[in-house]
Amino acid sequence: MALMSMIPSPRRCVVLLSLSLTPTLVAAVNPATSTKAAAADYYVRDLPGLPADGPKVNMHAGHIEVTPESHGNLFFWHFENQHIADKQRTVIWINGGPGCSSEDGSMMEIGPYRLTDQDNLVYNNGSWNEFANLLFVDNPVGTGFSSVDTNSYIHELKEMADQFVIFLEKWFALFPQYDRDDVSRAWLRESYAGQHIPYIARAILDRNKKDSKTAWNLKGLLIGNGWISPAEQYPAYITFGIEKGIIEKDSDNHKKLQADLRSCEKMMASDVGHVDYGECEAILSNMLKLTKKGDGDDACINMYDVRLKDSYPSCGMNWPPDLVHLTPYLRKPEVTSALHVDAIKKSVGWTECNGAVGGAFNAKNSKPSVELLPNLLKEVPIMLFSGAEDLICNHVGTENMINKMEWNGGKGFEVTPGNWAPRRDWDFEGETAGFWQEARNLTYVLVYNSSHMVPFDLPRRSRDMLDRFMGVDISSVGGDPADSRIDGEKGPKTTVGSAKNSTQNAAEDEHQKQLDEAKWAAYYKSGEIVLVIVVIGAVAWGYWIWRERRKGAAYSVLADHDLSRRSTGHRAKSQPGDLETAAFDESELDDLHVTTPGTSTSARFPKNQDGSEKFVTKYAE
């Protein structure tokens, strides 16, 4: 997109998505539209280019339909956690744009893998799935691998949020073992998701109030380098530019940009309450144009990391370097088949940012999400974090927004009249990492030496930030915690280097038990009742099929899967008899509509002593 366009430049992060399932299963089932889709239909058996070493990561991916009338579906990619600390947690990540794929986050920031070239992956030692399940969603419809009829793109933020809640309803129905997790929603790391996340959070909280029995445990919001408040963030381009030496105060360039700002402020005053203003976008576009030097690869400031340069008019759109491998990888037929990508998106091919989606998403009738934050802060904690070297959604604008915002009985970080919450130094493994500032349910973190994509630059440091916000304490897990301090004081043990083997076998057994119970829970939710004699007959028939298939296809027994998952040195290869294959085999019994007897009162999930849920634990980095 040309920077001089009146359409806002994509405020996005970089993406890569990869998952896999057997081709025969893809041919037999379209999970997005099938009324009988099961979790096993989305299971990722293998992923092209996976590293030979590192922990095995269980994954699911595919489409979930949200608007049947317009063939709209959202694509997701789910990674199970490697460990459980004190409770089970799920992090949902959405990228911005609007119209930019969340696979930026999955493959270039917080996911367990990174690309070394267009064919090979390496393990990300700072992956956020250490203590949390990760769910990446290409949002809204039409973004990334998600799809919709071209005349049905989203226009407003509430419409987007309502569709996302539909997605979550169906996703939790497929994966009921996660529906009581603590959900740190909207780990939206980048930019325009600063609009998406508050709207989705509001929709979730409203849903919870309507039906408290099925309420989701929304425990917090994280927004990184977010586009939240135009009134403060447009003027901050100039302030930040002077602070970083991009423009000189009182120079001709400064005066030209000040004229752009006056036009911007006039427009915002005459037509208040919008998310974007075309006249205001000219400030950044002209700043990049006025500071252009020459015609080479270093002609322009990188708007996502001002320490770097780029060609003009890209000015950062070619960054980060992993991006050059991303599109070729995600367009490989074997990758799209592994990810259960539908036929339409396979033929079109994956794109990082969809200009048609972004252009349609004008949000003309949507108010900026900053107006939602005060009420959200009454109900859930929120963390805003900023990479110090980002220009497009810079920390100056975020800090100015916080200083002007009123919430929970106070303004900004003022704790008493004239006294502001201190900026507390954050040190990580002997280096100055940034500062933390907190008051009345809001936390702000400025991360030094980082860009628009903090986890891309500082993966382990960003995970420490996440773990602190979620209240992770690894004391019960074992392993080596990171040396992380706030004002010189160590908090909870947050980052593990390796888990003790003694925690592993019991957790794997617990994992198997919970998967079995979750399957029965899904049957129970269906509301169908059958006689015990039918259940017994179905089990016997299923055993006969299993025995015959074992003879004919040389299936390995399920115990082999359990042993392979306990391997500590290398990624265990998927076997035809592994856990999810067993689940797929069982899907043939679904046609019998077998459920547990109505008299069953067994708990759906095992519980810890504190009432929280346990799930799966695996080896660490």
UniProtKB/TrEMBL annotation:
This is Pheromone-processing carboxypeptidase KEX1. It catalyses: Preferential release of a C-terminal arginine or lysine residue. GO terms for cellular component: trans-Golgi network. Keywords: Apoptosis, Carboxypeptidase, Glycoprotein, Golgi apparatus, Hydrolase, Membrane, Protease, Signal, Transmembrane, Transmembrane helix. GO terms for molecular function: serine-type carboxypeptidase activity. The gene is FG10145.1. It comes from Gibberella zeae (strain ATCC MYA-4620 / CBS 123657 / FGSC 9075 / NRRL 31084 / PH-1). It is found in: Golgi apparatus, trans-Golgi network membrane. It comes from the Eukaryota. Protease with a carboxypeptidase B-like function involved in the C-terminal processing of the lysine and arginine residues from protein precursors. Promotes cell fusion and is involved in the programmed cell death. Residues 495-506 have a biased composition (Polar residues). Residues 482-492, 610-621 have a biased composition (Basic and acidic residues). Pfam families: Peptidase_S10. The keyword Cell membrane does not apply. One of its GO terms (biological process) is apoptotic process. It is a single-pass type I membrane protein. Residues 1-28 form the signal peptide. Residues 480-511, 565-621 are annotated as: Disordered. Belongs to the peptidase S10 family. Its EC number is 3.4.16.6. The chain crosses the membrane at residues 529-546. Its main location: Golgi.
